[in-house]
């Protein structure tokens, strides 16, 4: 089991090439997001069962981890209307050891839709929405051994965040 690292980036207006249509997340998406969340991670994650996944996603909408920013939380559906990728952004994640900035709580893509650029598109969309709402930064936390996620976030100009005494 590895540790986690916190990353932070400046928000900006960015665009994706050939973006898939997306929309804002809603509470009606909770069942689909829960299923996608459970399927996206292995059993070592926080969601070791479908019930855990449902509880976590419901907790996001209930503000358990911090206020949800639905307008900065895009989802992508397939041609049949099933959610296949999502980015969930909080106004700020609860916790003393995190930046005072919006927080990318989860980013996940169905295995059948990976390697299509959807995750990058969703992060770019979230960063643009945050920028347009006046937020200057966005943060997230990942497992330090998650090389695929780290590569994505480095491509998007995320950097390791080191807390300063006045930030915590």
Description:
The protein has 168 residues and is an alpha+beta fold. The chain has a single domain (4-160), classed as Aminopeptidase, CATH 3.40.630.30. It is 28% helix and 23% strand. It contains 4 helices and 7 strands; from the N terminus they run E-E-H-H-E-E-E-H-E-H-E. The strands form 2 sheets. The protein has a 4-stranded antiparallel beta sheet with strand order 2-3-4-5, with helices on both faces. Strand 3 (74-77) and strand 4 form a beta hairpin. The protein is globular. The two termini are 26 Å apart. The mean pLDDT is 89. Residues 1-25 are annotated as: Disordered.
Helix content: 25-40%
Highest CATH level, the class:
Alpha Beta
Largest sheet data: 4 strands, antiparallel
Q: Which architecture name does CATH use?
A: 3-Layer(aba) Sandwich
- The name CATH uses for the topology is Aminopeptidase
- Give me the secondary-structure category: alpha+beta
Mean pLDDT: 89
In the predicted model, the low-confidence regions spanning at least 5 consecutive residues are none
What distance separates the N and C termini?
A: 26 Å
Please work out how many helical segments DSSP would assign. 4
Rg calculated over all Cα atoms? 15 Å
Question: Count the strands?
Answer: 7
Query: How many independent structural domains?
Result: 1
List the strand order in the largest sheet. 2-3-4-5
**Strand composition percent:** 15-25%
Shape annotation = globular
| The CATH superfamily title | Gcn5-related N-acetyltransferase (GNAT)
């Amino acid at each position: 089991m590895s540790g986690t690292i916190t990353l932070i980036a400046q928000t900006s207006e960015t665009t994706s090439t050939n973006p898939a249509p997306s929309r804002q997340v809603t509470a009606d998406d909770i069942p689909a997001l829960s299923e996608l969340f459970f399927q996206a991670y292995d059993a070592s994650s926080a969601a070791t069962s479908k019930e855990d996944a449902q509880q976590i996603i419901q907790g996001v909408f209930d503000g358990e981890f911090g206020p949800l920013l639905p307008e900065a939380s895009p989802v992508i559906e397939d041609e049949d209307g099933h959610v296949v990728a999502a980015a969930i952004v909080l106004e700020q994640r609860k916790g003393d050891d995190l930046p005072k900035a919006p927080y990318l709580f989860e980013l996940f893509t169905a295995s059948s839709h990976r390697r299509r650029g959807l995750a990058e598109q969703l992060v770019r969309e979230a960063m643009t929405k945050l920028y347009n709402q006046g937020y200057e930064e966005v943060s997230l936390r990942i497992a330090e051994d998650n090389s695929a996620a780290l590569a994505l976030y480095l491509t998007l100009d995320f950097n390791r965040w080191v807390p300063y005494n006045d930030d915590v």
